[in-house]
Amino acid sequence: MLNLIKISHNYFQGGNTVDVIKDLDLSLKRNCIVGLFGPSGSGKSTLLNLIGLIEKPSNGNIFIDNCDTIKFKDEMKTKLRREKISFIFQNNQLLEDFTCLENIALPLLLNGATFSDSKQKALNLLSKFNLENKKNYKPALLSGGEQQRISVLRALIKQPKIILADEPTGSLDKINAKIVMENIINLSRQLETLTIVATHNLNFLSLFDISYELQNGKLLELK
Q1: Superfamily of domain covering 29-57+72-222
Q2: pTM of the entire structure?
Q3: Sign of dihedral through CA atoms 9, 13, 17, 20?
Q4: What does the alpha-carbon distance between residue 37 and residue 122 come to, in Å, rounded to a whole number?
Q5: How many CA atoms lie less than 13 Å away from 14 in the CB half-sphere?
Q6: How far apart are CA 13 and CA 153, in angstroms?
Q7: Which end is more exposed in the chain, N or C (fewer Cβ atoms within 10 Å of the end residue's Cβ)?
Q8: Please, are residues 138 and 20 in contact by the beta-carbon 8 Å criterion?
Q9: Are 126 and 105 a contacting pair, CB within 8 Å?
Q10: Residue 72 to residue 70: CA distance in whole angstroms
């Protein structure tokens, strides 16, 4: 499903080269929930951006569904992201002028689905998570936990093959963080999606199938 082969990534700062990812290998199958731990600045977001084809590695190859994405042009990367990859961020990035229903339906609309089909699937998800009464609310009228749950549903509505979640509970209190994380994991299980969650919250360690710590540009498996 996902194979990273000898991935390295660096950037220049003050005339010096800073190595963020160093000769990293990783192989993951579908229907796997992966925890990615490490302190701020360890490179977790950079690694997710590389997997999500937002950044290009300095060296190495990234295979998704047996396709070497390093050879992809920008248009092909955009198409693959739109069809197979979803992102969940700490700041939910909901569109303030859209209702909850419209925010959730948007990925399907961008992929060419009809408004009626997209709306119905969004409504089904809202109902499933007892948020149907929020369907016509704008994001500003929701609590932080509700906003993040809407962003999770938006990420999952197109049934992606890969979900990349970057500190998805970082701005939430303990109770809402647990609810949002459970939503991500439960829906990922149902869809048999490969989900990679970058977090610093060790309380979630037991929820993941496998966990790694990103340390000095390398991945160390956590037991």
Answers
A1: P-loop containing nucleotide triphosphate hydrolases (3.40.50.300)
A2: 0.93
A3: negative
A4: 31
A5: 1
A6: 38
A7: C
A8: no
A9: no
A10: 6
CB atoms within 10 A of CB 31: 14
Helices (H) and strands (E) in the chain, counts: 6, 10
pLDDT averaged over every residue in the chain: 92
**Structure tokens of 40?**
């701020």
Please provide the DSSP assignment of 25-44 as one string: EEEE-SS-EEEEE--TTSSH
Per-residue pLDDT at 165 exceeds 90: yes
Q: Tell me, what's the pLDDT at 28?
A: 96
- pLDDT, tens digit, for every residue of 115-147? 999 999 999 999 988 899 999 999 999 999 999
Q: Note the pLDDT of residue 91.
A: 86
Interacting residues of 95 by C-beta distance below 8 A, sequence separation 6+: 102, 103, 106, 139
